[in-house]
Design goal:
CATH superfamily: Nucleoside Triphosphate Pyrophosphohydrolase
Largest sheet: 4 strands, mixed
Structural class: alpha+beta
Number of strands: 7
Number of helices: 2
Strand content: 35-45%
C-alpha cells in the first residue's frame, strides 16, 4: 500500500527561513518521486508512530543538515493531484521554520539537484505545483 495513493497521506511541509526574509528552496532532481526539476520548499511524509514535530525536525535535518531553531504552524492543505495518470491525496501540514543559514547544506544530493535562498517574490521557475496555493494561503504569515 502506498501513501497518498492507496490511502490519504499526511505530509509535513516546511518553509525554512533565515529571519531576514529569505527562504530556502530545493530543485528536485531526477531521483525525486515527482515534479522533477521543480523548486520546492521541502517536506516529508509522516510515518506511523512518529509525531508531527519529530517528523519536521527529522526531515529538515535529512534535507538541509540543520536543526530547527523555531517554528510556527501555518495551517493545513487538502492536496489532490494527479501525476503520470495516478491520482494522489495528501493532507499537508504547513510550517514556517527558522534555521541557521550558515549551517544549511544539501543533505540529499541524490534527490536534490541544488538548494538556494530566495525572497518569496523571486522563486524561480518551474515551481512545484503546490507553491502557488501554499503562498496564497500563507504568504502573510511567511512574510511576518
Amino acid at each position: 500500500m502506498k501513501k497518498g495513493v492507496d490511502y490519504t497521506g499526511v505530509a509535513v511541509v516546511f518553509g525554512c527561513h533565515d529571519g531576514n526574509g529569505n527562504f530556502l528552496f530545493a530543485k528536485r532532481g531526477q531521483n525525486s518521486r515527482d515534479e522533477k526539476g521543480c523548486w520546492d520548499p521541502g517536506g516529508g511524509g509522516l510515518e506511523f508512530g512518529d509525531t508531527v514535530e519529530d517528523t519536521l525536525r527529522k526531515e529538515i535535518m535529512e534535507e538541509y543538515c540543520t536543526d530547527v531553531l523555531d517554528y510556527e504552524f501555518l495551517g493545513y492543505r487538502d492536496v489532490h493531484r494527479e501525476h503520470e495518470g495516478v491520482k494522489t491525496h495528501w493532507i499537508a501540514l504547513d510550517f514556517k521554520v527558522l534555521v541557521d543559514r550558515e549551517k544549511v547544506k544539501n543533505g540529499e544530493p541524490h534527490k536534490l539537484d541544488e538548494i538556494a535562498w530566495f525572497k518569496l517574490d523571486e522563486i524561480p521557475s518551474p515551481m512545484h505545483s503546490q507553491i502557488p496555493e501554499w503562498l496564497r494561503l500563507h504568504r502573510e504569515k511567511l512574510e511576518k
